[in-house]
Design goal:
2 copies of one chain form a homodimer.
Chain A (H helix, E strand, L loop, with lengths): L31 H8 L3 H8 L9 H14 L5 H8 L4 E6 L6 H16 L3 E6 L4 H13 L4 E5 L17 E4 L10 E4 L1 H14 L5 E6 L4 H16 L9 E4 L3 H12 L7 E4 L2 H13 L9 E3 L17 E2 L3 H16 L8 E4 L3 E2 L23
Parallel strand pairs in A: 1-2, 1-3, 3-4, 4-5, 5-11, 6-7, 6-8, 8-9
Antiparallel strand pairs in A: 10-12
Chain A binds a DNA duplex through α2 and α4.
DNA sequence: TCGAATTACTGAATCGATTGAGTAACGCTG
DNA sequence: CAGCGTTACTCAATCGATTCAGTAATTCGA
């Protein structure tokens, strides 16, 4: 307090600001000092009581007075002021290339959200439309709001090179990989998922299994093919290159590819597809050929797209992409880093579980020879 | 400044904090005072220059020095400090009941995002899983972070009663309505969309048009039926109640309902469906009946679900839900309120445009009589 | 050449919560 | 009853940018 009486006194409670004509009524916010005054204590005490971090020495009676005053006034701590003081925002930033236009984004964001909420953190989402400039600005904004950590999310599995600006805080790549072994990322275990699907077919008795791959050989495509081949190899089935056909990742692509497979001299008894969308096309080709699923041909997909897989006829056996789990893992990883529980990068491949529905059965011609172990194995 | 030399001096630049073993290197943040020192001016000047709101009186030379220093040091204004001072967060909160599990959420969020970004605002998204308690907490968190305004979003059109806490700041309901005429909301113009679809069928020459509605009579269902009936009435077609069948909003529901319509003594020549998912089932029923689309039966859907409508065979003519436009409208409405350009509530029904694909053609038996005006009209 | 106006800045209060340092009052021990 | 340790608080600095209220220096008109 200075010599002259004129001391700081800005906290005088300006009138509830204006009477707006239409009921928005932004009432003046209650400050901690208001609660302090009402309870007859200092703001320090209020802070101590409300954050209940003082196991220290506030008697129950005082605590009760503070809580009561706080409740009565409808006090809510001003997060902005708090954040400024404690130098954190309790927020994790999520930068994604495309929020809309993919049904998977929701699941990823949902998982991340859950994990963040459980830890009392917020998730701040910005999407960049694949625009490098927007991206830089977004990252800047995030840092300006003091995000504790950042998630760099993409909407399908590929190899990315995140911008330098990211590295100012702990960060992780979600649903893509980088090439630097010092970076952390989480991706679906594509190979494992495809392996499980192929194995499911093999266990049903199939030995001639067609595979429809994407004509774009990005990581997801390449790794799924690897899983398929590994399963064949383990079962002692010689890989026949003629059984792999590539096409566009669309129903029409799947349809054309499946048609080719069916026209082979020795057609497959089962067809595995890169995605559910391609499987949708395969269904059509099979129907056109006068064959039935799974009686004549078994089919498996990949992605477990909720708008497709359960609704095809018969419902499609497919592999689930673990978007929610990945979103959750990303946040949990960052929390661990923030707590100092981790001292190096982590790379995670998240399991893709097989979802068994009704599109797989033993092959017709081998139905007898392979009885004993089939269906519902996994 | 006090008598004894010991003055505030917290701003001394603590060492770049610690050397972490693993490259996270959170370098000390550059403050405005650092820039001021480097440029040889006061923080006031820096602030004035950087916010360039002083057309006032800073000579170009000084401005240049400030910009240069700022760039050289990599200065970025601390949003938290700024927000505390200016008493706003430049953030709009979006509370939604279900972010995941619906392919529409993305579009809505995307539209809102875009509009917010254009105005230099952030969007803070929280999802509540339809849990009233989580919802209250989320709203509290939002207010605690001083959001400028709030969006209460739901994932399909219904009647909601938003919690009282919402009303502390400007707010709007997105994709649902309330019953209070003082509230603002934006919903799809369901009736208009259905009307357009029915009209499209009528213009192709159909006069006996079946309609598959949802067995749950929520607003979307009721209003679409209204649109259908209005189009019939306008065209002077007597409404035949036997042509409306209700079932579950799933492919199987659509299939069963369509089958019923086809078994009528005088079956319809076209079938309009409550959703694309039901249309998907209708396609199957029509195929089972040995009929073709659109040769024997025309079909229209509703929703324009990206994972379904374009991929059916033939591609489905349907009505687009304006999720992105609604998200955008919600934010723009709030911005207008914040700028004081609006003095009362607004209720908006957003147009649902018809998306013409290939599932509609003139009815076979009337192909001659109605030639002249058909297809591609809208 | 004086005073007013303009230009080019700066000092310090301010937003609201947190927290390190401190103090008054009390009980207890020797 | 001096002195120490608790208990129960309070003071005021602090986070970093914004902005009101100045001030010193210069220009300009009369």
């Amino acid at each position: 307090m200075t010599q002259d009486g004129k001391v700081t006194q800005g906290n005088e409670a300006p009138e509830a600001l204006s009477i707006e004509p239409w009921p928005i009524q932004r009432r003046r916010r209650v400050r901690m000092s208001d609660v302090a005054a009402a309870a007859g204590v200092s703001t320090t005490t209020v802070s101590l009581v409300l954050s209940s971090k003082a196991g220290s020495s506030i008697p129950a009676a005082t605590q009760a007075r503070v809580f009561e005053a706080s409740r009565a006034l409808g006090y809510r701590t001003n997060t902005i002021a708090r954040n400024l003081r404690v130098q954190t925002s309790d927020t994790i930033g999520l930068i994604s290339d495309v929020i809309a236009s993919t049904p998977f984004a929701g699941a990823m964001i949902h998982g991340a959200h859950q994990a963040a909420a459980e830890a009392g953190k917020l998730l701040m989402i910005v999407n960049t439309e694949q625009n490098r400039e927007v991206e830089a600005k977004a990252i800047d904004t995030m840092h300006a709001s003091q995000v504790d950590a950042l998630i760099y999310a993409t909407m399908y599995h590929r190899i990315v090179e995140p911008p330098e600006e990211l590295r100012e805080a702990p960060w992780v790549v979600l649903d893509s990989r980088t090439e630097d072994p010092d970076d952390s990322w989480v991706v679906p275990d594509e190979a494992g998922g495809a392996y499980a699907a192929t194995r499911h077919l093999i266990e049903a008795g199939h030995r001639r299994i067609g595979y429809i791959r994407d004509a774009n050989h990005h990581p997801a495509d390449v790794e799924r093919v690897e899983g398929y081949q590994r399963a064949l190899a383990e079962a002692g089935i010689v890989f026949d290159p003629e059984l792999i056909v590539a096409d566009r990742n669309q129903p029409i692509g799947g349809q054309e590819a499946a048609a080719k497979l069916l026209q082979l001299e020795r057609p497959p008894t089962a067809i595995q597809c890169f995605t559910d969308r391609m499987a949708m096309g395969a269904y059509r080709a099979i129907a056109r050929a006068g064959l039935s699923i799974p009686g004549d041909i078994s089919v498996v997909g990949f992605d477990n797209q909720s708008q497709i897989a359960p609704w095809l006829e018969p419902p499609l056996t497919t592999v689930q992409l673990p978007h929610e789990a990945m979103g959750r893992w990303a946040v949990e990883h960052l929390l661990r880093v923030l707590r100092g529980e981790i001292d190096g990068p982590r790379q995670q491949r998240m399991e893709c579980p097989l979802v068994v529905r009704e599109s797989v059965a033993p092959p017709r011609d081998k139905a007898t020879q392979s009885s004993g172990h089939m269906r519902g194995t996994s």
